[in-house]
Write a structure and sequence with these properties.
By secondary structure, the protein is mainly alpha-helical. The protein contains three helices and no strands. The chain starts with a helix and ends with a helix.
Length: 101
């Protein structure tokens, strides 16, 4: 490299350094905008999490209602004479015990 090229290269490196330094320093508008975007991202994330929790809760309630209806139908069956069907009740209790173990 010649001396002239070296000087140009050196000034270029210095200018690049100062440009990087200037980019790091933000104006108040840029800071405010960045803070706003950060808050918006947090808000959206919280909203999605709340929607997911609500959806899971609704699915759990729906599953519970279906199980409750099935249990009710099984336990309320009667014989022709109007007596409770004990065979189905015993099957339900057996199934319940097997699920626990």
């Amino acid at each position: 490299m010649t001396v002239v090229e070296l000087v140009y290269f050196r000034t270029y490196v210095i200018l690049c350094f100062f440009n990087d330094f200037r980019k790091k320093k933000q104006s108040s508008y840029q800071k405010t905008k960045e803070e706003y975007e950060k808050r918006q991202a947090e808000y959206i994330q919280k909203k999605e999490e709340a929607e997911k929790r609500q959806k899971d809760k609704e699915e759990a309630q729906k599953k519970y209602k279906e199980q409750k209806l099935e249990r009710y139908k099984m336990l309320c069956k009667k014989t022709r004479k109007g007596q409770p069907n004990l065979n189905l009740q015993m099957e339900y209790l057996l199934k319940k015990i097997q699920d626990r173990t």
